[in-house]
Each structure stands twice: as C-alpha cells, then as structure tokens.
C-alpha cells in the first residue's frame, strides 16, 4: 500500500490501496479521515493533547475550554492562535488570569484518544464534574427530531468522503439544522458545536443537539454545561448518562433512527 504525503492541517487524505472485489484484485484510491494531534495550550502551558480532525479548530478550542470548565464564559477566552508544528497542531489560548490560576490548581495531563472519555483525570472529583441543574424549560416536538435525523446525512460532507467521522448538530426547535461540525472523535465534534455557538454569541438555548454517536456521561455533561436541554443520539446511552440527565433536567433520547427513537429522561419535554 502506498500512502500519500500528509499535510497536518488536512481533514482527509487520498491513499492508494488494493481492493478485492468480485474475485479480482484492483488498484484504487481511497479517501481517509486524518487524525491529527492537537495540543491545547493555555497561557503558554500545555494542558491536553487530543487526536482530532484538523478543521474548525477555533471552534474546538472555544468549546473544549467551556465544556471542560477551563473558562466559564466565552469572554474569558481572550484569543486563540492556531500554529502548525512538526508533529501536530497547537492551539494557543489566552485566558483570564483567574481561570488560569484555577486551571493550575486542578491541572491534569490528558493523552487524548478518539472517543476517549475521562482519561487522565487525577482523581474522581476531577473526573466526575456533574452539571448544574438546567433552568431551560424548552419543549420539542417529535416531528423536529425526525426532521433533523433526515436532514443530517446530507450535511456530513467529511463522512461522505471517508466514512470515518462523527457529527454533532445544533438543531433549532422547529427541526431545522443550524450548524454541523464533524470530527473523528464524537466529543470533539460536540465541543466544536459548543464553541461555534459561543463564538457566534448564541443566546437562544431553545434548540437541541443531535449526535451520530452513543450518549455517554461526558456527552451529557457537555450538552448540559452548554445550557441546552435535549441531547438526541443515534445510538444507546449509558446508564450513568441517563442518571445524570435525569438529575440535571436534560431530555435524553437514544436510538434515534429514521422515524423512531427512545426517550430515557425528561420525556415531558417532547410533544407528540
């Protein structure tokens, strides 16, 4: 197999492959998603390295900082500089001094992996950051969920090319998709959505998140921390995710495919 030369900032690469089909070996080209090491650096100090898709990186930096509790408000992230280095990409983030002091107090080193969860947390208190109770009393219709499910595949351009990426979408209450972000990691895709909303100054919290992955504890944590009141996943949730969603007031929907879904918590938010 011959590999192409790789530019780190690429989201995908075209490779030469051998393809066995119908009893015949053929030479072909295949488009593969890139996994790029992305370092999160705050006020000059490296905090975490994630394997991610090298697109929408400023959204990623903002969303990661918010969902991980590194900053509490978008205004506390003063600037983001994206620098390509020999082994990956560094996101240099300038944050408020008070937040940087707090970050140093609970500093942890993460070795990011595609789909990783709480790797690298130094203790259980750091790992299990339960979200505060939501004060968002939003309601949604079953039709809006079905409509978003039908519309999402056509918005997953990188998935269409590679077949290897997850997507998260912010969906308006009427079921129309407001924005989509893709990544090899489901958590990264969600962070990119959170960051894009924050950068746009999105104050309306009446929409919901649709993800092409399962609904883990961390996915629930990130959605609730963003102040959104429903997460719809195409695959199953974990039991812990359901318990946390129930506790914080998040409507959690799983196995959402075609015109069917399963509601695991706060079903009163959905109108049929």
Query: What is the CATH T-level topology of the largest domain?
Result: Cytidine Deaminase, domain 2
- CATH class of the largest domain, please? Alpha Beta
- Arithmetic mean of pLDDT: 90
Strand order of the largest sheet: 10-9-11-12-13-14
Percent of residues in helices comes to 25-40%
By DSSP (H or I, 4+ residues per run), the number of helices equals 8
Shape: globular
- Give the termini distance in whole angstroms: 52 Å
Structural class, by secondary structure, is: alpha/beta
- Rg (CA only): 19 Å
CATH homologous superfamily designation of the largest domain: Cytidine Deaminase, domain 2
Uncertain segments? 1-6, 109-117
What is the H/E string? EEEEHEEHEHEHHEEHEHEHEEE
**Major sheet:** 6 strands, mixed
Number of strands: 15
Note the beta-strand portion: 25-35%
- Number of structurally distinct domains: 2
> What is the CATH-assigned architecture of the largest domain?
3-Layer(aba) Sandwich
SSE layout and pairing:
Layout: E1 12-21, E2 24-33, E3 36-42, E4 45-52, H1 57-67, E5 77-84, E6 89-95, H2 97-105, E7 110-111, H3 124-127, E8 140-141, H4 142-151, H5 157-162, E9 166-171, E10 177-183, H6 186-199, E11 208-211, H7 217-225, E12 230-233, H8 239-248, E13 251-257, E14 260-265, E15 270-271
Parallel strand pairs: 3-6, 4-7, 8-15, 11-12, 12-13
Antiparallel strand pairs: 1-2, 3-4, 5-6, 9-10, 9-11, 13-14
Could you walk me through the main structural features you see in this protein, from its secondary elements to its overall organization?
It is a single chain. By secondary structure, the protein is of the alpha/beta class. It folds into two domains: 36-127, Roll (Ubiquitin-like (UB roll)), CATH 3.10.20.10; 140-271, Cytidine Deaminase, domain 2, CATH 3.40.140. 27% of the residues lie in helices and 33% in strands. The chain contains eight helices and 15 strands. It has helices spanning 57-67, 97-105, 124-127, 142-151, 157-162, 186-199, 217-225, 239-248; strands at residues 12-21, 24-33, 36-42, 45-52, 77-84, 89-95, 110-111, 140-141, 166-171, 177-183, 208-211, 230-233, 251-257, 260-265, 270-271. It has a six-stranded mixed β-sheet. A five-stranded mixed β-sheet has the order 5-6-3-4-7. Strand 9 and strand 10 (177-183) form a beta hairpin. Helix 1 crosses helix 6 (186-199), helix 6 (186-199) runs parallel beside helix 7 (217-225) and helix 7 runs parallel beside helix 8. The longest helix has 14 residues, at 186-199. 39% of the residues are buried.
